[in-house]
Amino acid sequence: MELLLAQTPWRQESITVYGKTHLQPRLLAWYGEPAAVYRYSGKTHQPLPWTDQLDGLRRRMEALAGTPFNSVLLNYYRDGRDSMGLHADDEPELGPEPVIASLSLGEERALYFRHKRDKQARGLDVSLPHGSVLLMSGATQRYWKHGIRKLRRDCGPRLNLTFRLVGSISAPGED
Ligand SMILES: O=C(O)CCC(=O)C(=O)O
Ligand SMILES: [Fe+2]
């Protein structure tokens, strides 16, 4: 975690909601094969090339999940004010039933799940302690959204690494 915090070229992206632009409440970095271009939160991300450390983690995640990954999104939650809004990782370039391996380091925070359509469905909080891996697969992204809430109490930094397999979806008329 110390290596990743120190050596990653962290960026803070902005997001535009209802015509207003805000800075996203966390830092991020995107690594992967050159072909793993990914649109996330309405932005196109060109991946940085794998570092030895991230490639090593990728191999371990592939062994655990039994599926290949060609990219990883790093999210850095600096303190309890950093968060991630409810969303599903359901972009077309991830395919219909993506497998996502999510490695958490540092402060334990909860990933909360809400059903997309069934408002009666009970939500779910999944605590993600240091060193844990959460596998999301099957229809999870189709039916559920997830996010990280802000906290009122003080809390230390947290890193989350989501390993993904991003396909190239070419736009109509492109090859
Ligand atoms: O920080 C987390 O555990 C969630 C990250 C996430 O949902 C994402 O990167 O899409
Ligand atoms: Fe996500």
The gist of it:
This is Alpha-ketoglutarate-dependent dioxygenase AlkB. This protein has 175 residues and is mostly beta strands.
Explained architecture:
The protein is 14% helix and 38% strand. With 175 residues, it is mainly beta. The protein has a single domain (2-10, 22-164), classed as Alpha-ketoglutarate-dependent dioxygenase AlkB-like (Jelly Rolls, Sandwich), CATH 2.60.120. Strands 3-6-13-8-11 form a 5-stranded antiparallel beta sheet, with helices on one face. It has a 4-stranded antiparallel beta sheet with strand order 7-12-9-10. β4 and β5 (43-45) form a beta hairpin. The protein is globular and about 40 Å long. The protein binds 2-oxoglutaric acid (AKG) and fe (ii) ion. 2-oxoglutaric acid is lined by residues 73, 75, 84, 89, 102, 111, 128, 146, 148, 160, 162.
Write the layout of secondary structure elements.
Blueprint: H1 2-7, E1 14-17, E2 20-23, E3 27-32, E4 38-40, E5 43-45, H2 52-65, E6 71-77, E7 84-87, E8 100-106, E9 109-115, E10 124-128, E11 133-136, H3 140-143, E12 144-148, E13 158-164
Antiparallel strand pairs: 1-2, 3-6, 4-5, 6-13, 7-12, 8-11, 8-13, 9-10, 9-12
Question: What are the salient characteristics of this protein?
Answer:
175 residues, mainly beta, Jelly Rolls, five-stranded antiparallel beta sheet, four-stranded antiparallel beta sheet, 3 helices, 14% helix, globular, binds 2-oxoglutaric acid, binds fe (ii) ion, magnesium, DNA damage
